[in-house]
Write a structure and sequence with these properties.
The chain has 2 domains: 120 residues, Aspartate Aminotransferase, domain 1 (Alpha-Beta Complex); 237 residues, 3-Layer(aba) Sandwich (Aspartate Aminotransferase, domain 2). It is α/β, with parallel strands linked by helices and 374 residues long. The radius of gyration is 20 Å and the shape is globular. Bound molecules: pyridoxal-5'-phosphate. Pyridoxal-5'-phosphate (PLP) binds next to α4.
Length: 374
């Protein structure tokens, strides 16, 4: 059987990884500043994470959501404390798209409405409602196009004020746009969103799937703006590679039996992985490291005259390359053995582990300077 050929692949086969490093099947070593798309939060194969998952696997990998699972309560407790949302409720699922799909459903259940406001360049995943709220017509099938979604220009206060009314169920926005090329929403814009949602009885959904779990130096990127959205979605960094996602739901929103559900969400292994991630973030001060190394890297990038629009927060960094240097990302990988991310048309995204060191970032900066001078 052939694989369904949807992914453009590098000719590379990683077989082992540790911290910020990956080894391929030929024994070559690569620096990972992409984290498998912002997923590797605490570093590859962190010993505490490996031990927690191994121990859990030896006890019990899975049972369904029809029985008591105290690991879910432990996770909710720890997540609430570390994120600053102890009074919220947690719904567990298995991916970012699923988290957004469930948040959109909750907003629609609560308001009895179906219109959603999203923003240009947004990416919220590929399930039905999540992809309808994604600003990329190429990945929206006719089947997904029936949702009532209005796209507004990002950071445009006037457009928002004109669009908001009593028909809006939810406004969904990323803490920092990732796939859209590391676009940071203005703090004032987020505050206006919160205020307008309150005024019109709509729910605000903060998609922190990529920007959450400490990546920006705060637990969630929207916390720079001081807002408290009713719904917050998360996934990528949550399990450090174990597929897990979640929705934080405001304490005033009442659940009813069967309102949401999933077979795999919150299973024993997913909880063990997510708990281990939070423990390492806390014990090793990884949010502080993300803030510190992010500032260091961004300041160094700003000194390089060929780079445009160096932007981001913490370890979620983007910059634009001039047209003459489109090949740089490929060369970084193939010649310098450094993984980075990209965004169209010509941006590089850095999404390393939150434990990345200054020495590792320096290796990248030296390689980048070499590429820019050739
Ligand atoms: C902001 C954001 N939301 C949602 C998703 C979808 O997550 P998943 O691929 O786990 O469904 C992504 C994935 O890139 C994302 O960046």
């Amino acid at each position: 059987m052939n694989l369904f050929d949807v992914y453009p692949l590098f000719s590379l086969t990683p077989v082992k990884a540790l911290g910020s490093w990956i080894w391929d099947d030929k024994g070559d070593k690569y620096l990972d500043l992409y984290g498998g798309h912002a997923v590797i939060s605490i570093g590859h194969s962190h010993p505490h994470y490996v031990q927690a998952l191994t121990e859990q696997l030896g006890k019990m990998a899975f049972y369904s959501n029809s029985v008591q699972n105290p690991l879910q309560e432990q996770l909710a407790e720890k997540l609430g404390a570390l994120s600053g949302y102890p009074d919220y409720q947690l719904f567990l699922c298995s991916s970012g798209a699923e988290a957004n799909e469930n948040a959109l459903k909750v907003a629609s259940f609560v308001t009895g409405r179906k219109k959603v406001i999203a923003f240009t360049k947004a990416f919220h995943g590929r399930t039905s409602g999540a992809v309808a709220a994604t600003d990329n017509p190429k990945i929206v099938a006719p089947y997904n196009a029936g949702h009532e979604v209005v796209f507004l220009p990002f950071n445009d206060e006037t457009a928002l004020l004109e669009a908001m009314d009593e028909s809006v169920a939810a406004v969904i926005i990323e803490g920092i746009q990732g796939v859209g090329g590391i676009q940071v929403p203005d703090d004032a814009f987020l505050r206006l969103l919160e205020q307008q949602c309150q005024k019109h009885g709509a729910l605000l959904i903060l998609d922190e799937v990529q920007s959450g779990h400490g990546r920006t130096g705060k637990f969630f990127a929207h916390q720079f703006a001081g807002i408290r959205p009713q719904l917050i979605t998360m996934a990528k960094g949550m399990g450090n590679g174990f597929p897990v996602g979640g929705v934080l739901i405001h304490g005033d929103i009442k659940a009813w039996s069967g309102m949401l559900g999933t077979t795999f969400g919150g299973n024993h292994l997913a909880c063990a992985a997510s708990l281990a991630v939070l423990e390492v973030i806390e014990q090793e001060g990884l949010m502080e490291n993300a803030a510190q190394q992010g500032t260091y890297c961004m300041e160094a990038l700003k000194q390089l005259p060929l780079l445009q629009n160096v932007r981001g927060r913490g370890l979620m960094i983007g910059f634009d390359l001039p047209e003459t240097h489109r090949h740089v990302r490929n060369n970084l990988l193939m010649q310098h053995r450094i993984f980075t991310g990209e965004a169209k048309p010509n941006a590089i995204r850095l999404l390393p582990s939150l434990a990345v060191s200054q020495e590792e970032l320096d290796l990248f900066l030296v390689a980048l300077k070499t590429e820019l001078n050739t």
